[in-house]
Amino acid sequence: MADALLDLPLTRIAAALQAGETTSRALTEAAIGRAAALQPRFNAFVQVLADRALAQADARDAERRAGRVRGPLHGIPLAHKDCFERVGVAMTVGSAVIEPAPGQRDATVLSRLDAAGAIDLGRLNLAEFVA
Fold this sequence. Notes:
- This protein is α+β, with helices and mostly antiparallel strands.
- Helices cover 44% and strands 11% of the residues.
- It has a three-stranded mixed sheet.
- The longest helix has 19 residues, at 24-42.
């Protein structure tokens, strides 16, 4: 069920979460599985943050059970381009020339997604230096 939901618009996924048709954990497991299955073909991900994403999914499910929903992205796994800094996660900006170093702060967009309850699935490939 959760895997099929990944093909739907975010509004439908959010509605399924709200209605209790699925959980953030199930969606995140399905997204991690799909990323792993498609990675050899598309090389979309620089890094899937599976353990972190599953921990976030469990936390979002607990928040939902307690009646605390942060917004429409609450519990939805999303990935982002590898050009946004995240504390402790190395960013490549699509370049093989620079030495990746762990981020010192979270980019504003990632902080806002966190505050909205989105789950950070991982970092996506992009053209070198976001060209």
